[in-house]
Write a structure and sequence with these properties.
Radius of gyration: 14 Å
Strand content: 15-25%
Helix content: 40-55%
Distance between the termini: 7 Å
Largest sheet: 4 strands, mixed
Oligomer: single chain
Strand order of the largest sheet: 2-1-3-4
Number of helices: 6
Structural class: alpha+beta
Protein backbone atom coordinates (compact mmCIF):
# COMPACT_ATOMS: atom_id res chain seq x y z
CA UNK A 1 0.00 0.00 0.00
CA UNK A 2 1.17 3.50 -0.86
CA UNK A 3 -0.77 5.63 1.63
CA UNK A 4 -1.02 9.42 1.73
CA UNK A 5 -3.04 11.10 4.46
CA UNK A 6 -4.09 14.67 3.76
CA UNK A 7 -5.33 16.33 6.92
CA UNK A 8 -5.35 19.24 9.31
CA UNK A 9 -3.06 19.30 12.33
CA UNK A 10 -5.94 19.88 14.77
CA UNK A 11 -8.35 17.39 13.18
CA UNK A 12 -9.28 14.55 15.52
CA UNK A 13 -10.24 12.20 12.66
CA UNK A 14 -6.91 12.83 10.91
CA UNK A 15 -5.07 11.80 14.07
CA UNK A 16 -7.26 8.70 14.37
CA UNK A 17 -6.48 7.76 10.74
CA UNK A 18 -2.74 8.16 11.31
CA UNK A 19 -2.99 6.04 14.46
CA UNK A 20 -4.93 3.34 12.55
CA UNK A 21 -2.13 2.98 9.98
CA UNK A 22 0.62 3.19 12.64
CA UNK A 23 -0.98 0.42 14.70
CA UNK A 24 -0.93 -1.84 11.64
CA UNK A 25 2.63 -0.84 10.79
CA UNK A 26 1.78 0.63 7.41
CA UNK A 27 4.03 3.39 6.21
CA UNK A 28 2.23 6.54 5.15
CA UNK A 29 2.97 10.06 4.08
CA UNK A 30 1.19 12.71 6.12
CA UNK A 31 0.45 16.01 4.37
CA UNK A 32 -0.76 19.08 6.28
CA UNK A 33 -3.40 20.68 4.06
CA UNK A 34 -3.15 24.05 5.80
CA UNK A 35 0.57 24.22 5.08
CA UNK A 36 0.92 22.47 1.72
CA UNK A 37 -2.57 22.12 0.23
CA UNK A 38 -3.12 19.76 -2.70
CA UNK A 39 -2.05 19.97 -6.29
CA UNK A 40 -4.72 20.09 -8.99
CA UNK A 41 -3.79 16.58 -10.12
CA UNK A 42 -4.04 15.19 -6.57
CA UNK A 43 -7.41 16.85 -6.05
CA UNK A 44 -8.77 15.50 -9.34
CA UNK A 45 -7.48 12.00 -8.56
CA UNK A 46 -9.08 12.02 -5.11
CA UNK A 47 -12.35 13.42 -6.53
CA UNK A 48 -12.48 10.54 -9.03
CA UNK A 49 -11.74 8.09 -6.22
CA UNK A 50 -14.58 9.30 -3.98
CA UNK A 51 -17.20 10.12 -6.61
CA UNK A 52 -16.93 13.86 -7.20
CA UNK A 53 -15.69 17.16 -5.79
CA UNK A 54 -18.87 17.74 -3.80
CA UNK A 55 -17.99 14.75 -1.55
CA UNK A 56 -14.78 16.55 -0.52
CA UNK A 57 -16.45 19.72 0.80
CA UNK A 58 -16.76 20.13 4.57
CA UNK A 59 -20.12 21.87 4.88
CA UNK A 60 -19.58 22.27 8.64
CA UNK A 61 -16.34 24.23 8.34
CA UNK A 62 -15.97 27.92 9.10
CA UNK A 63 -14.40 28.39 5.67
CA UNK A 64 -17.58 27.00 4.06
CA UNK A 65 -19.55 29.78 5.75
CA UNK A 66 -16.93 32.40 4.84
CA UNK A 67 -17.05 31.37 1.19
CA UNK A 68 -20.90 31.37 1.20
CA UNK A 69 -20.93 28.07 -0.65
CA UNK A 70 -24.37 27.14 0.69
CA UNK A 71 -25.84 30.06 -1.25
CA UNK A 72 -24.11 29.51 -4.58
CA UNK A 73 -26.18 28.06 -7.40
CA UNK A 74 -23.16 27.83 -9.70
CA UNK A 75 -20.37 25.68 -8.30
CA UNK A 76 -18.43 25.44 -11.56
CA UNK A 77 -15.41 27.00 -9.83
CA UNK A 78 -15.51 24.52 -6.92
CA UNK A 79 -12.20 22.91 -7.87
CA UNK A 80 -10.46 26.29 -7.88
CA UNK A 81 -12.02 27.22 -4.53
CA UNK A 82 -10.89 23.93 -2.96
CA UNK A 83 -7.35 24.48 -4.22
CA UNK A 84 -7.34 28.08 -3.02
CA UNK A 85 -8.94 27.31 0.37
CA UNK A 86 -7.88 23.85 1.59
CA UNK A 87 -9.80 24.48 4.84
CA UNK A 88 -12.93 23.66 2.79
CA UNK A 89 -11.81 20.05 2.44
CA UNK A 90 -13.30 17.36 4.64
CA UNK A 91 -10.52 15.45 6.38
CA UNK A 92 -8.81 13.10 6.53
CA UNK A 93 -8.41 12.35 2.85
CA UNK A 94 -6.64 9.01 2.58
CA UNK A 95 -5.23 8.04 -0.78
CA UNK A 96 -3.96 4.63 -1.84
CA UNK A 97 -2.90 4.94 -5.48
CA UNK A 98 -6.08 5.68 -7.45
CA UNK A 99 -8.34 4.77 -4.53
CA UNK A 100 -9.34 7.37 -1.96
CA UNK A 101 -11.55 7.91 1.05
CA UNK A 102 -12.83 10.99 2.83
CA UNK A 103 -13.34 10.95 6.57
CA UNK A 104 -12.50 8.20 9.04
CA UNK A 105 -13.30 4.95 7.18
CA UNK A 106 -11.31 2.06 8.70
CA UNK A 107 -13.54 -0.58 7.09
CA UNK A 108 -12.42 0.54 3.61
CA UNK A 109 -8.77 0.73 4.68
CA UNK A 110 -9.05 -2.81 6.07
CA UNK A 111 -10.32 -3.95 2.65
CA UNK A 112 -7.27 -2.31 1.03
CA UNK A 113 -5.10 -4.09 3.57
CA UNK A 114 -6.71 -7.46 2.80
CA UNK A 115 -6.05 -7.03 -0.93
CA UNK A 116 -2.43 -6.36 -0.11
Amino acid sequence: MNIQIFGKSKCFDTKKAERWFKERRHKFQSIDLAKFGMSRGELQSVARGVGGLDKLVDAKSKEYERQHLAYLADTSDLEDRLLEHPALLLTPIVRNGKQATVGYTPEIWAAWEAKG
